[in-house]
Amino acid sequence: MERSKVLSALSALAHEARLDLVRLLITQGNEGLAAGDIGRRLGLPASRLSFHLSALEQAGLIRSRRVSRNVIYTADLAGIGGVMSYMLADCCMDHPEVLACCGASARHALHRVTEGDPAPRDHCSGITKT
Amino acid sequence: MERSKVLSALSALAHEARLDLVRLLITQGNEGLAAGDIGRRLGLPASRLSFHLSALEQAGLIRSRRVSRNVIYTADLAGIGGVMSYMLADCCMDHPEVLACCGASARHALHRVTEGDPAPRDHCSGITKT
DNA sequence: TCAATGTTTCACGAGTAGTTGAACCATGGA
DNA sequence: TCCATGGTTCAACTACTCGTGAAACATTGA
After folding, report:
1. Cβ contact (<8 Å) for A16 and B10?
2. Where does the source fall among the domains of life (chains A, B) (predicted)?
3. Which fold has domain B3-78?
4. Among A56, B16, B46, B111, which residue carries the largest CB count within 10 Å?
5. B interface mutation test: which of A77, A91, A94, A114 has the most B CBs within 10 A?
6. A112 in contact with nucleic chain C (CB within 7 A)
């Protein structure tokens, strides 16, 4: 993934409403959610919602399709994953101490390869900060 | 990690110079780098550099310590990891398709548990986007 | 104490992002 | 064709961020 795409994605994510939007859409899976439903759930007025949705779509984090009168939005999982991958691998160089914080997620990523060694998600707060 | 901290971290990262800064500092490990050296390496004027460094420090992504005349900056690996962890787990709900994009990083996180199945980092671009 | 070096802070102007409400476009049903 | 509904775009304003250069501060050595 190109650097400029990552930057625009980070910039898109760096907003409370848009982070909520991504989170909500991820929970909705491929089915997605109509713009109106999103606005009702998040309590956003239509024009602002549309503004934020187009910012996220521009950044490659969500997708849209028209279904009758509704516009259905879905999370672009590959786009989101690409940003995370860039951050972890290209920016953080897969630094062990950074990745340790994502331990739980990493386990999911490997389809629960391991069973022992809990290494809880909030492990980060206990990391030595020399 | 709190939501507001994640937002300020994302906002801090959403800038070319600051992403470079984090990347550079991560490669320098605990030893870190003096502000002046950073400026020389990245070709940033002192005032701009200081501005960006303090933004990153405020966001909990880097740390500083004074050593004689120099101010040494280091990456705050726990802070960075915390943001990544929040994004993967709390925002993306550990969604398998998102995590699949971080496959290589995930493997590192598990201390090279697996040896086979390369699953290259740019796997994301090949993910089915239904 | 003074000068040199390293770094931060400040004031300013330019550009960009965010919010709001109204107007507009697209679609489907009467 | 007309109206209602669902979304988007626009204009205007505010607020914030960025970059620049000059000034200020901190530390060290002479």
Report:
1. no
2. Bacteria
3. Arc Repressor Mutant, subunit A (1.10.10)
4. A56
5. A77
6. no
Residues A18, B50: Cα–Cα separation, whole Å: 29
CA of B40 to C1' of C14 (A): 26
Residues with Cβ within 8 Å of residue A44, at least 6 apart in sequence = A17, A38, A52
pTM: 0.86
Q: Give the model's pLDDT for residue A52.
A: 98
* CA–CA distances in Å: residue A71 to residues A53, A68, B22, B129: 11, 8, 38, 18
All structural domains of chain B with their residue ranges: 3-78, 95-130
Question: Between β-strands B33-34 and B70-75, what pairing exists: parallel, antiparallel or unpaired?
Answer: antiparallel
| Contact B17/A at CB under 8 A | no
Place of tokens 């999911």: A108
Nearest CA in chain A to B19: A91
Q: Is B103 within 8 Å of A109 when comparing Cβ atoms?
A: yes
Per-residue pLDDT of chain A (130 residues; tens, 9 = 90+): 889 999 999 999 999 999 999 999 999 999 999 999 999 999 999 999 999 999 999 999 999 999 999 999 999 999 999 999 999 999 999 998 999 888 777 766 665 444 444 433 444 443 333 3
Name A63's Cβ contacts closer than 8 Å, sequence gap at least 6.
Answer: A57, A73, A74, A75, A76, B129
User: Which residue of chain A is at minimal alpha-carbon distance from B24?
Assistant: A91
Dist CA A26 CA B115 (whole Å): 31
pLDDT-derived band at B122, boundaries 50, 70, 90: very low
- Among positive and negative, which fits the CA dihedral A36, A79, B117, B29? negative
